[in-house]
Design goal:
Blueprint (H helix, E strand, L loop, with lengths): L10 H18 L5 E3 H6 L2 E5 L24 H8 L11 H19 L8 E4 L18 E9 L7 E7 L7 E3 H15 L12 E7 L2 E10 L4 E6 L3 E2 L3 H15 L9
Parallel strand pairs: 2-9, 5-7
Antiparallel strand pairs: 1-6, 3-4, 4-5, 7-8, 8-9, 8-10
Helix pairs in contact: 1-5, 3-4
């Protein structure tokens, strides 16, 4: 941190940056693209179950849902249903994820008034490189479709919609998911205005073909580990499943930050 700003980095803040930099470098060097719980444990990554039921103790720790979101329109749902149609040429996980994101984004940021979702601000992922960029173009590709953060010094929380060109299951995490989260955290940790925060929570909507999951991640100072909490998989198979998934994902992506980070 620059001394001219007269901001002192705490020991915990510095420790977290060092841990995340080493973790990110280790993950980047891996030649595996899917990692199970045992492999994650060897990297000091704690993969935990998360439910989006607000009455459960397993709900997200740092992100609350927005409750005034309408159901997706029939037009949006019909468009999203076409992703499973082989005649539409959506045959690989990336093209399906891109098509699903296009429809979800239209719903979440146009049908729903995003500007009412203060304090979030939207940004272009391609322009966001405070630590490293978020893309891998070699197969299996991964990257970000959309990101939001909060201006100022009060909230270090960060959200992104990402994609991975792989088919998903409930037993593994993708290398792309594991790289994007710490890179976003490190970007936040380098900001002078956020240096007083000891936790930088990241929420990802991870799109993979015709499925998606919500991931909450943060550094746990007590166990000195990287925590990644995963929801169950959401299917985009018919109007009913798509409507439920679109609304739930929008509720959390547009909802407020919460939890103690200082």
């Amino acid at each position: 941190m620059s001394s001219k700003n007269q901001v002192k980095e705490t020991r915990l803040h510095m420790e977290q940056r060092g841990f995340l930099m080493k973790l990110e470098a280790t993950i980047e060097a891996l030649d595996k693209h899917k990692l199970d719980a045992a492999q994650l444990k060897g990297l000091n990554i704690n993969l935990c179950r998360m439910t989006l039921d607000q009455n459960s103790g397993l709900k997200p720790h740092f992100f609350a849902p927005r409750h005034d979101i309408p159901q997706p329109s029939d037009e949006i749902l019909n468009e999203a249903c076409s992703v499973g149609d082989p005649e539409q040429c959506f045959t690989d996980p990336y093209s399906r994820a891109y098509a699903i994101h296009t429809d979800w984004d239209s719903y979440a940021f146009h049908d729903v008034e995003f500007l009412d979702s203060a304090p979030w601000r939207s940004m272009q992922p391609i322009d966001y490189t405070p630590y490293k960029d978020l893309y891998q173009y070699d197969k299996p590709a991964f990257g970000a479709f959309r990101m939001v953060d909060i201006a100022g010094r009060e909230f270090p929380h960060f959200k992104a919609v990402i994609y991975n060109d792989l088919e998903v299951d409930n037993e593994t995490c993708f290398r792309g998911e594991l790289l994007i989260s710490p890179r976003l955290m490190l970007g936040q940790l380098t900001k002078i205005c956020l240096v007083h925060h000891n936790i930088v929570p990241v929420l990802l909507i991870s799109l993979m073909g015709k499925r998606a999951r919500l991931l909450e991640s943060y550094f746990d100072s007590s166990s000195k580990s990287f925590v990644m909490r995963s929801s169950d998989l959401y299917e985009f198979s018919d109007q009913t499943s798509i409507s439920k998934a679109f609304k739930t994902l929008a509720e959390y992506f547009l909802g407020d930050p919460t939890g103690k980070t200082v």
